[in-house]
Amino acid sequence: MSADSGVPTYRGIGGLYEVESTEDGLPIEAILSGTMIRTNPLLTWKYLAAIAAAAEGATINRGHSVIAEMERHFPRVWTLTQNVDGFHRAAGSQNVIEIHGNMRSLSCMGCTYRRNLDETAGLQIPPRCPACDDILRPDVVLFEEALPEDSLRSLQRQLETGFSVVFSIGTSGLFPYIQEPIAAARRRGVPTIEINPDETIISSMVDYQLQLGAADALQQIWQRYSLAN
Question: Which of 10, 61, 199, 225 sits between 20 and 30 A of 54, alpha carbons compared?
């Protein structure tokens, strides 16, 4: 979804996940892990800051706005996202399940202190808690960490209720919980659509595939729906 905003897709060509090891000699999965931020927070934050810097200045795109408009128009629209940029909420969507958390807030690893983060420019690396001087970490799910239980419960409730149509937009679908909404829709005989310029694991599961970017496809869909209604 956020590729059209200029946010790099880190599983894409030339991204961090395309190399066996980083310049520090470790896989990115090891560096961005729960273990590493506890034992070597400086190293983890070095890469978190690089990721944040690559997206600095990016903002919502038309695709985010269309989804927010759909939510206001239809009785029930929910968005499950792996993105941690917070753009869906910034665009006005309320029913958002941020399954991997949100990079726009920090929490102390030693106490209950929490703060919002508008930008990483000028942030001390690693940032420290003004209350107890422990390390602050972004409210995201790192490797080796469990998904947030409240998000999983919300996802399960929505899947049990079901939907009239399910879209998969711009995701490689590598995680089973990202594939599950499509799989659940297929079991119910509900139409499924993938929007993605590339073939993915999900491509063979859906009824329709639009090989377009998210913003372009969603704008066209919304425009045609609006003209027809």
Answer: 199
